[in-house]
Amino acid sequence: MNDVIINGVKQSLLDSSGQSQDCFVAPKAFWTPRNDNIECTLLNTYVKKTTKMKLREKTEYLWDKYHFTPQKKLGQNFLIDPGIVDRIIEALELNKEDTVLEIGAGTGVLTEKLIPLVKKVIAVEIDEKLCQILEKEVGEYPNLEIICADVSKTSFLDKFHQQEKVKIVGNLPYQIASSLILELIESKWLKFMVVMIQREVAERITSQPGSKKRGALTVLINYYGKIVRIIDVPPQVFIPRPGVGGAVIKIEKKTKYQANNEDKFFAVVRAAFSTRRKMLANALSRGLGMEKEIIKEILTRAGVEWQRRAEELRVEEFVKISNELYNWN
Asked: Are the beta carbons of 191 and 163 closer than 8 angstroms?
């Protein structure tokens, strides 16, 4: 019987072989020194269980090890529920040919699980201290690329070919989630994304026609993709604990409705929702700077009643209106 110290806990492990063995245990936060006459299988099993059961302790251990303090201004809230991590992995439908773009890699909790499952992981992290943690803890893997940058200011056009289909995953900072999703969903290289966002935003972009929660963002994102809500995430599964709950959603690229001119489509959608209480003809007249009678004629040609309100319209109805506006001009 040999004693081994793992994370400050003394463990007695039975030697079954009597031979000297090298035991490799990952992640690095749980490295154990080489110890002769140890049954590696039993040791690895124990550490894997410890890793899964104590994700919070592992996260806090890394914070202490690298003198890291979460920054509220960057929306840094770290997921500590392994069950939700597993649901995210499941939703990604990974295979060995996949390239995954991870946004906000943090301390590498999700990164570490992605690496053995895919061809390549590109982990983007804005915080320089967290980038250092990633480099130290998982940086040695050949199929991992770490980019220390603001994802909202990073272009991936040169990195991904048009024919390449990339999966995106990440816990998006709440303050930029809406604009970032809208920017990424237009990318030709995107296959789908599985992202964590504020629950209120998830409810808004998945709302159906007629809902008061429906807005311009709902229509614009649904123009490009099909949205599925995977799981709601309570505040208590993060550290630090945020003030609101989150939701994991999956947005898959689809054959979009064909707007003759997307700039006009975007303009119509934004104008329609700019004055929510007004009837559609009034809102469009004001938002587009056109005479009300002309707007009524365009709506008639599109088969949309001018008395309706923006939240009542389906995506394809907005497309018809923008196409008629394009033809009118």
From this structure: no
Largest CA distance in the chain: 91
Length of the chain equals: 329
CATH of the domain spanning 72-253: 3.40.50.150
pLDDT tens for 12-29 read 343 333 333 333 334 443
Domain extents for the chain?
A: 2-53, 72-253, 262-328
The reply to whether CATH 3.60.15.10 applies to domain 262-328 is no
Which residues of 126-208 form beta strands (DSSP E)? 144-148, 166-171, 190-198
Q: Which two tokens stand for residue 266?
A: 């975007």
Q: Of 2-6, 138-142, 266-270, 318-322, which gets the smallest average pLDDT?
A: 2-6
% of the chain at pLDDT higher than 90: 72
CB 29 within 8 A of CB 61: yes
From the number of C-beta atoms within 10 Å of its C-beta (0-12, 13-18, 19+), residue 39 rates as middle
Hey, is 49 helix, strand or coil?
helix
Contact assessment for residue 78 and residue 55, using Cβ atoms and an 8 Å cutoff: no
Gap between the Cα atoms of 131 and 137, Å rounded: 10
Q: 25 is written with which tokens?
A: 């245990």
Q: Find out whether 204 and 217 touch, Cβ atoms under 8 Å.
A: yes
Q: pLDDT tens-digit profile of 215-250?
A: 999 999 999 999 999 999 999 999 999 999 999 999
Tokens representing residue 77 in the block:
């809230």
Q: Label residue 198 exposed, middle or buried (CB < 10 Å: 0-12, 13-18, 19+).
A: buried
CA distance 5 to 72: 36
